[in-house]
Design goal:
Elements (H helix, E strand, L loop, with lengths): L5 H9 L4 E5 L3 H8 L5 E4 L3 H4 L11 H14 L4 E5 L9 H13 L5 E3 L7 H9 L4 E6 L18 H17 L3 E5 L3 H10 L4 E4 L7 E4 L1 H4 L17 H17 L14 H6 L2
Parallel strand pairs: 1-2, 1-8, 2-3, 3-4, 4-5, 5-6, 6-7, 7-8
The protein binds 3-methyl-2-oxobutanoic acid (KIV).
The site of 3-methyl-2-oxobutanoic acid (KIV) has 11 residues, from strand 6.
Amino acid sequence: MKKITIKTIGSWKENSKPFSVVTAYDYTSAKIINDSNIPIILVGDSASMVTYGFSSTIPVTMDEMILVCRAVAKACSSTFVVGDMPFLSYQSSVATAIKNAGLILKRGMAEAVKLEGGVEVKPQIKKIVSSGIPVMGHIGLTPQSVNQLSGHRIQGKDIQSAQKIIDDARAVEDAGAFAVVLECIPSELSKLISDTLSIPTIGIGAGPHCDGQVQVWHDILGLINNFHPKHAKKYLKLSDNITKALNQYNSDVANKKFPEKKHTSLCSPNIIKKIK
Ligand code: KIV
């Protein structure tokens, strides 16, 4: 299949064709996605939690994001790869933002970057785009600002907050982003934004009116048992199945049921006899 491009992604909005995005953080998972019908992978900074074991997206570094991006990108012959820019890799200045966005493409081998924020990062988005790097925006609940937002809560539930999100959406589009993630905002607000913008909106916890949807790999496959975000649908209970398989393997070894003959290589008894 031909590589997906930002032109392809833009055409889905023009043709009202809903599309899906899923996160990935390693080569093997990315290969499965590349061989599926899902057209876009986001190498999310959720890697901070699901790959590196931190409790928020704040600690993950550029080097750690580049490592996971590189692994994912190697598997993606057709799937479009977006690499997330980690906390404080773009906020402090336009120059820092361009340098780090460049590294996500040059070393991380992604095709685009994603960064959080609206009006306040408009200069960064503008300059990254004019440097030749496609940008996906991310507004609404922006997890890198979890401390400023006092937790992972739905945004845009009052007039002031909803107005800020609309202003952010317009700023991101105006700056030249090719798409924008709307995270955890009311469905009516994401409908208004999706109807207003000419670039595709990609929702997570933002209802059915977005042009596309994004989900975290671990959430839809049921890989984490004690975390059930309201916006995620579990398509599998993979964690339970993996535990079952591991316990079966452990028990087979303990009971000498593994390895069997078919898993074993033999040589002539003469060879063993001749060894001193
Ligand atoms: O890092 C991530 O996984 C994300 C998605 C939730 C949009 O930013």
